[in-house]
Amino acid sequence: MEKYSEEVFTTSLFEEKVAVVCGPAGNKFMLYTANDCLASWVPSAALKLFNWLDSPGLSVKEVISKGRNFLYSEILKPESLRQYISIMDSLAREHMKTYWDASQMVKVYPLTQKYTLSLACKLLLGAKDAHEVERISEFFHLTLQALFSLPINLPGTKYNRALKGLENLKQHFLNIIAEKKNTLLETRESTNSNVLSRMLLDKNVGSISGWVKLDGGKKEELPLFA
């Protein structure tokens, strides 16, 4: 930065070349030219971790288009948002009472993560059991630690632990989806407060399936957006 520029400079991040743009001009450039000059990027470790979906016969544009239409027409419509507000408020009150009120010193960041993940499990999956949310949280944090690490798959490394956690997370999600399918078939309910149930019931999104790659080459089918 001292030799060339404090506003624009190149460096390396996780073995990849990176350009850093700073200041108001940099923010303006990012906002107004993002679609023309920039492309999304994730570290190679993250790509390897999440390269576990196959979707034969479907293009990425088709999948994204159907997912976006479903998001705007079903998930973000006023009727759905009204349901979410009561759930968010109830969970926030419970979280504050359990983790904040009785403590003299509060570590905000980990507790905020805990609340956000609990809320996601509730809204997306309909998870009500605290033990189930805790299990998902453990697998999730194991995987998250390796997103910005070197993809070295050796025993004892963060990346190795993340791969094991990811296998457990995938299997857990498959179990949740299978259980949710059976529940919907038995109850025949047409309205649900969680996103997963709505996806499974939606004729456009629920019909989009993919294959989850499990350890050892085994594959399991699931709705792609679930």
UniProtKB/TrEMBL annotation:
Transmembrane segments: none
Name the UniProt record assigns to this protein: Uncharacterized protein
Superkingdom, natural source: Eukaryota
Annotated GO biological process: sterol metabolic process
Keywords from the UniProt entry: Iron, Metal-binding
Gene Ontology molecular function terms on file: heme binding; iron ion binding; monooxygenase activity; oxidoreductase activity, acting on paired donors, with incorporation or reduction of molecular oxygen
SUPFAM superfamilies, alphabetized: Cytochrome P450
InterPro entries linked: Cyt_P450_sf (IPR036396)
Keyword Ion transport: no
